[in-house]
What we know:
The protein is an alpha/beta fold. 35% of the residues lie in helices and 18% in strands.
Amino acid sequence: MNQIKISVIVPTYCPGEYLKDCIASLNKQDLDPSEYEIIIVLNGSKYPYWDNIKQLIGDDKRYDLLYSAEAGVSNARNKGIDAARGEFLTFMDDDDIVSPQYLSGMMEISDTKSIGVSMVRSFRHDISHWSSNFFICKKMAHIEKYRNASFFKNRSFISYVAGKLLHRDIIGNIRFNNRFTNGEDALFMTTITKNVKNICFTNYDSCYYVRERIGSASRRKLSKFKLLRDSLGLIHEYISIYCRNPFRYSLPLFLSRIPGVMKNAYVLAKNK
């Protein structure tokens, strides 16, 4: 039996019809089925969602279905990390889709000190009609500018967890901060950079497709009070994390996160 190389962690909350598409895309990976596992973490309400997911995955040995009564994508991701058996970990939203070469393409470029980054595209109904509406897509069109670049220049690519392959040594004992429901991706990715030397990019065959819809795990609206509270809390976290290990982190990267937090809060508040 082959050793599990990759653990795919899929947090889900009150999943709807799109989870079926997500699972179907993971089932079509060209990587040997014995080399990857899919951990689905259902959080919040358990029924009828638990039974629905069980029907979708059937008796496929690659799947591990977990439950947490505590809602929140960060809590679900952390539960997935703790349960993962793979050498590498990757995170996926339950309404997104990946290409058949997604896992194998990132495996080719990732190691104990290098983060693998896949191509990213957005779509609404059909990936054959993909667009560049997701914020990172326009940068992907000029990817050669970012190969072998500094963390500061690549800061947009380490602002979200989707489309990444992370060796478990890079993650170590670092986990998502449950305090935040906005900006937690960037905080987690920035924190793990102390264990990273390189950011490597796949070719266009290895692609992560972000579904454009309201209400998914990464696109929920927050109250203005919570936005302000989270923003101040995030700025404090960035300062604290950097000060604890100043020689292992990029100062320009951490300094860029402060105006980034403020800009993100402004945009979200404006769109209410």
